[in-house]
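hey so u asked for the seq, here:
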Amino acid sequence: MDIAVPVGDIPHDLWGTDKAVGETPAAVVVETLGNLTTILERMVTEAGRPGGVPGVLASEDTLFHAKRIPQIALEDYADRIVRYCPSSYAAFVYTFVYIRRLCTLFGHTLVNAHSVHRILCACHVVAAKFCDDVFETNSFYARVGGVSRNELNALEVQLLALLDFRVHCTPAEFANAETFLRDKEAIRGETREVAYSAVQSWFCPKSSASA
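ran it, structure tokens below
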């Protein structure tokens, strides 16, 4: 059940970097996903540090955990998603919200090098289906995500179960997520510790408060 990323099997680039998605310029969508990728990379790095606080739900207990770390870099994987799966800006913000909910419920170490690709893929698929009137089939999403259709179906079902099928977010939650996701200073930080502290405080407020 490891991610095997197909090469050259996606027939065409569905939209260019200058095309608007709804009322949001595509460049903003690309930047937003880039910031999300940076956040996830920080979390993966911290999850691999010795002495980290274990999550409530180990990634080994979910379908998101791959036996081997995928060879494709997370940045390149995210680029595949934004290039071949043209979703709305809201869908990418919702992707961020879903990942945050998982971390709040089960601990931020659920997102690690073995699970981050599949978590990003599954969260985006659910977000696109919820936010957008037009979206791709799971067969297409699976090709982009480098998993089989059956695997993606199972990932989607498990994600919905972990979220307790709560896929909507309030306007306030959306605004908070959007604000943080666009805050380059907080995300990148002057040092790794500063950046991770900001990320952890937003993703896992409970663990940050008790630290």
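The longest helix spans residues 26-47. The CA atoms of residues 97 and 177 lie 7 Å apart.
lmk if thats what u needed
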